[in-house]
Amino acid sequence: MKATRSTGRAIIDCDVHPYPKSVDEIRSYMQEPWKSRYRGSGRGFFDNPVHGMRLDATPPNGGGAGTDPDFVREQLLKPFGHEYAVLMPRAFCNLLPDPDYATAIAAAYNEWLADTWLGKHNADGVFKGSITIAHQDPHAAAREIERWAGHPHFVQVMTDSGARAPFGQRQYYPIYEACEKHGLPFAIHPGTDGMGINVQPSPGYPTHYIEWHTCLSLAFQAHLVSFLTEGVFERFPGFKIVLVEGGVSWLPGLMWRLDQEYKALRYEVPWMTKRPSEYLRDHVRISSQPLERPDDDGHLLQMLTMMDAEHILMFASDYPHWDFDSPKHAFPKLPDAMARRIFYENAKEFYKL
Amino acid sequence: MKATRSTGRAIIDCDVHPYPKSVDEIRSYMQEPWKSRYRGSGRGFFDNPVHGMRLDATPPNGGGAGTDPDFVREQLLKPFGHEYAVLMPRAFCNLLPDPDYATAIAAAYNEWLADTWLGKHNADGVFKGSITIAHQDPHAAAREIERWAGHPHFVQVMTDSGARAPFGQRQYYPIYEACEKHGLPFAIHPGTDGMGINVQPSPGYPTHYIEWHTCLSLAFQAHLVSFLTEGVFERFPGFKIVLVEGGVSWLPGLMWRLDQEYKALRYEVPWMTKRPSEYLRDHVRISSQPLERPDDDGHLLQMLTMMDAEHILMFASDYPHWDFDSPKHAFPKLPDAMARRIFYENAKEFYKL
């Protein structure tokens, strides 16, 4: 026991934090596959353990994948002949506990998008944007929608599928009221499920990225059932939604199941004036990526027919993400009329382009 | 202010509880549809708002639906010619926070079932039983399995789909080790999802019974993905599961999706030595009720073909519940070979009957 010069007391300090100088110091003590996955304490929670971006999507003039509008034109729009690209920025504000901070991030993303991709880099008008909102504060979200409604290039409102309650519930209605008023569809995209304040849409936390990513589609199914059974499309007859990157082939089975439940239980939801599946064509669209590809193309074609893909499905590539769907290779050979609607007409009508 | 005789003090008591003499007192102040649904404070959380049992299933000699083995013979087994009925008791012990109490309930259910339905009421051996376990305590559950393994009429282990973690996770492995050791399949049945200690397998709580009941199938999908991606069937090669009352038509789309993810992400799950869907025929069965019935029987037949129903699907009626599937009417006309396997052979092989 020795007294120090400064206090004259012997001291044992029971909480002092040592940090590695870089993540690489810790990595050097790890084996693969963990070594190349580790990005620092608490990171990599549900990050793709391989890579999150197409490796060839890094722009030659610097910056990360998806940061250079001109390179996106070169790599995506020109080669495939895209007439429009609907932009889905990734603000991740829906996972934050502070609704004011989340709303500030959403507003900043919208201003940035309007200035850049939808502004000075959009002389040809090929880029159409999504209004980012923080759905934790539906009234603030509605004000953010009001702020951008009428902008020539914002064509929808977007949020992430991660949530604390299914999206059909009434606390969200100020958002839907604003969407309906301005004819803006509401797009739901995966990304904050089970993160921050959001509950995990499965029975407890999945372990691996492959499990988490596969089960993302379950959140979309639950949100859709909620929209339908809560009667959102009765309360807001002009309101439309699009489920982006939530999977495709679950739709027929889910609607068969819900229609059957409705037959027995409609007493509980008297505001539903028709079968759940009958709301889809007027109010719901599904985007195609990641399109499931069974071994037998015929099975996928049967599934697309069952779900009325000709009216419900809209093409999406998810560029520049790792699981990009190429317009040339994602689908098997489709009947011409179906292909035309999926790749072009459904979105043209839905977004009034 | 007046002083009382007993204390000599003036008293204001700020917490005194008044109770209605019966639920009917409160009901008399309610309107329909709430009036007939209300069963007392906190009850009716996710109870069927119409009725949970077939109204004609109440035995003539007293007791509730499903309490009289002889009446079940009269109403179900004889008219349809059932050779065996696999019994799924409903102990609801998996929602309890106390694992010892939950385990005691499971044990009591097993003793009761062995004494009655599998004992003195089972001279003809038509009833086969499920060993109820409390999966909150996997080691205690394994001991309970050991206790009944070898009983001539217990043919599987069962639990509810409600859970705090997906069933592929390693904390459950003592259960699967015991199942494998004794050749007992592990059956998962809905019922405690989002109740008690169990998380809700959707993004927050659904509002209505129709929504909750429709989305029960999402828990099954998440559990199946967990079993597959965690490599449970590699670790326990003799282990088999059956998903009971979790829906049917979601299987093809989910397996297409997971197979596709596996193609890109198998680096993360190197213990999976083949595509996820390839484990199904050896390890997974799905029971048929509630079978989805789309308007077009042809679509259902396509779906059954896609999922290899001829090997994967086993008939179940869910007697005496409200959404009972009759062996005569639940299915459209099936090819003979498929019908024979679904109604009889798949279960005969699976349960070694």
UniProtKB/TrEMBL annotation, chains A, B:
Keywords of this entry: Hydrolase, Lyase
GO biological process, alphabetically ordered: secondary metabolic process
Highest taxon above the source species: Bacteria
GO CC entries: cytoplasm
SUPFAM superfamilies, per the entry: Metallo-dependent hydrolases
Residue span(s) of domain Amidohydrolase-related: 12-353
Listed GO MF terms: carboxy-lyase activity; hydrolase activity
InterPro entries referenced in this protein's UniProt entry, alphabetically: ACMSD, Amidohydro-rel, Metal_Hydrolase
PANTHER family in the cross-refs: 2-AMINO-3-CARBOXYLMUCONATE-6-SEMIALDEHYDE DECARBOXYLASE, ISO-OROTATE DECARBOXYLASE (EUROFUNG)
Name of the protein in its database record: Amidohydrolase
